[in-house]
């Protein structure tokens, strides 16, 4: 069975920029999973720092209104790895999931860490790179011109163990008509 992990689509991150394309593509993937009856699991990141927009008591920690109603499950996490000290493994085991698809936010942190951790746990992993986004830029890392999403996608693709697709490639290969639950 396949499952979709929608990581950290929270107000405190989405409000950092114009993520309409990423949200739209993520919504398209979610709708495909819904049509096939496959589970959609949202992860919410909570930060312990009170000044953080992802502090548990802040409006920034809430799931973004454009997608929150699609969640079959909402799980909390406190690190970039969605598996670490969370209910994700138990939930996936109960569901019988073997193939995880990754979309959401911060491409180079939570999405990347989760994709690698999923592979390490024996899951087949598909990373839909243009359905991920980040509030960071090349300037954040002192690497002018760095396209974070393409860099992460290339690194994961080079691993030869995590499948990396653009939405269009995902749609062609895995849409609900050709890839049922």
From TrEMBL:
<comment type="similarity">
    <text>Belongs to the isochorismatase family.</text>
</comment>
<dbReference type="Pfam" id="PF00857">
    <property type="entry name" value="Isochorismatase"/>
</dbReference>
<protein>
    <submittedName>
        <fullName>Isochorismatase family protein</fullName>
    </submittedName>
</protein>
<dbReference type="InterPro" id="IPR036380">
    <property type="entry name" value="Isochorismatase-like_sf"/>
</dbReference>
<keyword id="KW-0378">Hydrolase</keyword>
<feature type="domain" description="Isochorismatase-like">
    <location>
        <begin position="3"/>
        <end position="139"/>
    </location>
</feature>
<dbReference type="InterPro" id="IPR050272">
    <property type="entry name" value="Isochorismatase-like_hydrls"/>
</dbReference>
<dbReference type="InterPro" id="IPR000868">
    <property type="entry name" value="Isochorismatase-like_dom"/>
</dbReference>
